[in-house]
Design brief:
The complex is a heterodimer of chains A (397) and B (257). Chain A has 397 residues and is an alpha/beta fold. Chain A is built from 16 helices and 14 strands. Chain A has two domains: 14-51 and 90-205, Rossmann fold; 58-89 and 210-396, Rossmann fold (3-Layer(aba) Sandwich). Chain B starts with a helix and ends with a helix. Classes of the chains: A alpha/beta (397), B alpha/beta (257). The interface between A and B is large, with 36 and 49 residues.
């Protein structure tokens, strides 16, 4: 990578990542970088974080063997049960870690963006636990389709700011959170919700989420005597996916699959499949694969799943895509809804619509997955939050 | 651009750097307003390249930007329009915009077309020094300037890192906020200005973010006064209300003696 007279450019994964921010946002990012180096390795942080993960969040989460579905599919389907965590999704792994870091940095407040509301709830929960002020930015459309999560955040003491600009989804929420952070950086940490954004967030969030894959890898070996053949996770910004896939990257025999949201699947529809349909560009502080028009305007994304509804993706996924280590594929709204219903009916687990995309890829590729394979899916969250939205869709069909 | 600012200063006034989003208030009217701004005595004009996600801008410029995109304004449209009108403006022209549209256009093509269109330089708010290596290379081939932006939380040490790469003028954001924000912290701003003077030697300093009337600068101690003033949000609001540009700019360009 070229440098300006040898000045370091931290935070790159291959050609992706970096730190494309206003100079006024650099000091808080550098401060966070230092806190990651100086505070996170200490026993004070590590012991407290480990205790919180175990006794507050409910780690480790089980790996569940779906015997009914496995029989139907002809291969073994395992689920990493992040849906069983406190607040209902993997987001708490990251939020509790960053909030603890904020507390130990002496910050008074935390802010966050949220799409599905899961990261907002996790951040509001962590703020309540640590006595930090909390403001959550959420697209107005998401406020509407994830109403129960808005109520939870408010109950937890957070201020929820609906963002009406654009299509009122995650992209606009991140813009507003970044703007707000410029003004209040001295006493506030931005708890970024996904493994994206400017350095050091992609690395920080990955390192707080990789517990998913580290546990699952060990659990699979303990349970089945060997590694899984295929590991699958849904990719929006990509935090659950990088957390799940990262510990398997060196296991060359394991096929890794990231599933992007393809929207309705109609020609020209809005999607969230930035790796499959985008090209490199810069937004939200990072150089990554983006859905954009020919003039470099970032497209509005679309998906039935609010948590995947984002026109970009974390830079490490862009890199893993570029080197071909992870296969990034697409599942559509109706396939996700089918998967949502199928897991619910046959295994008694209501998955989040985000995780339903990962399941949908598995159900759609039965013919290509060899019989007897071991397929591990990250069930990143539970679907309670999606009931209204999913039922509307199901009843319409 | 440095000379344009020095010339204004030699006339006993701050250089005036109005900002207008390309295609504001609409695609036809924009060219008229741009000419009016030039004729009102602007020394440098910043033309905003609209972007879908303008995270350094407040609601006024954000809306202007979104409207412009909706009306089909693109970097290509701006460069072609300026090329047609090359030589029409006395003021130096700079493009202010976020990195992605420039990146998608291609830096080498951009340098060539910007040069053909009579552009002197660029202001890119979402690009720190370290990430600017590729675009600087392209700009250098055509003598285009990349303006340095600093803020109240930029340390003297950091400013000194920028100094060897800084020319034209320095853009000092006067508050930690977005454009249009005008809660000035005089003590903090004075300190920033003094440090910027030290770091950037004789490269002129401009203050942006929240300026409306020249008197606003009177609260600054004389040693912290800028060489130039950037006028953005207030000017857009003025134009939007249908008033002539000259009414807004003349107190700046022709201050009462």
């Amino acid at each position: 990578m070229k440098t300006l007279d040898g000045k370091p450019r931290p935070g790159y994964f291959g050609e992706f990542g970096g730190r494309y921010v206003a100079e006024v946002l650099l000091p808080p990012l550098v401060e966070l970088e230092k806190a990651i180096e100086q505070i996170m390795p200490t026993p004070e942080f590590q012991d407290r974080y480990a205790d919180l993960l175990t006794n507050y969040c409910g780690r480790e989460t089980p790996v569940f063997y779906c015997d009914i579905l496995s029989e139907q599919l002809g291969f073994d389907l395992y689920l990493k049960r992040e849906d069983l965590l406190h607040t209902g999704a993997h987001k708490i792994n990251n939020a509790i870690g960053q909030a603890l870091l904020a507390k130990m940095m002496g910050k008074k407040n935390i802010i966050a963006e949220t799409g599905a509301g899961q990261h907002g709830v996790a951040t509001a929960t962590a703020a309540a636990k640590f006595g930090l002020g909390c403001t959550i930015f959420m697209g107005a459309k998401d406020v509407e389709r994830q109403a129960p999560n808005v109520q939870r955040m408010k109950l937890l003491g957070a201020t929820v700011v609906p963002v009406t600009y654009g299509t009122g989804t995650l992209k606009a929420a991140i813009n507003q959170a970044l703007r707000f952070w410029i003004t209040c950086q001295e006493d506030t940490l931005y708890v970024f919700g996904t493994a994206a954004g400017p350095h050091p967030f992609p690395t920080l969030v990955r390192d707080l989420q990789k517990v998913i894959g580290t546990e699952a890898r060990r659990q699979m070996v303990e349970r089945t005597g060997s590694l899984p053949d295929i590991v699958v996770a849904a990719v929006g910004g990509g935090s659950n996916a990088i957390g799940m896939l990262y510990p398997f990257i060196e296991d060359k025999e394991v096929k890794l699959v990231g599933v992007e949201a393809g929207g309705t699947g109609e020609p020209g529809c809005m999607t969230s499949a930035s790796l499959n349909l985008g090209r490199p560009g810069v937004v939200h502080g990072e150089l990554t694969m983006l859905l954009q028009d020919e003039n470099g305007q970032i497209d509005d994304s679309g998906s039935i799943s609010a948590g995947l509804d984002y026109p970009g993706v974390g830079p490490e996924h862009a890199y893993l895509h570029s080197i071909g280590r992870v296969n990034y594929e697409v599942a559509y709204d109706d396939q996700a809804i089918d998967a949502f219903q199928r897991l619910t009916r046959f295994e008694g687990i209501i998955p989040a619509l985000e995780s339903s995309h990962a399941l949908a890829w598995v159900f759609n590729h039965v013919d290509e997955i060899p019989a007897g394979s071991k397929v591990l899916v990250n069930l990143s969250g539970r679907g309670d939050k999606d009931l209204n939205h999913a039922m509307k869709y199901i009843n319409l069909k | 651009m440095k000379n344009a600012i020095k010339k204004a200063n030699s006339q006993g006034r701050k250089a005036v750097i109005p900002y207008i989003t390309a295609g504001f208030p609409n695609t036809k009217r924009f060219w008229y307003e741009l000419k009016e701004i030039d004729e009102a005595g602007a020394d440098i004009i910043e033309i905003g390249v609209p972007f879908s996600d303008p995270v350094s801008d407040g609601p006024v410029i954000e809306k202007a930007s979104a409207d412009a995109i909706a009306h089909g304004v693109s970097l290509k449209w701006i460069l072609e329009g300026l090329k047609e009108r090359k030589g029409l403006y006395d003021a130096k022209l700079v493009l202010m915009g976020y990195l992605n549209p420039f990146m998608q256009y291609g830096y080498n093509q951009l340098a060539e077309d910007a040069s053909d269109a009579g552009i002197s330089g660029f202001i890119i708010p979402d690009q720190i020094l370290e990430e600017s290596v590729e675009i600087r290379e392209a700009f250098a081939t055509k003598g285009l300037t990349l303006i340095t932006l600093v803020g109240p939380n930029t340390s003297l040490e950091r400013m000194k890192e920028y100094a060897p790469y800084s020319e034209g003028f320095i853009y000092v954001a006067s508050v930690l906020g977005t454009t249009g924000h005008n809660d000035q912290d005089i003590a903090a701003l004075s300190k920033t200005m003094v440090e910027a003077r030290e770091a950037f030697a004789d490269t002129p300093l401009s203050i942006g973010f929240g300026l409306q009337r020249p008197e606003q600068l009177n609260s600054l101690p004389s040693y912290a006064h800028p060489d130039a003033a950037v006028l953005g949000t207030s000017l857009l609001l003025h134009i939007e209300s249908g008033k002539p540009v000259i009414d807004f700019l003349s107190p700046w360009t022709h201050p009462a003696n």
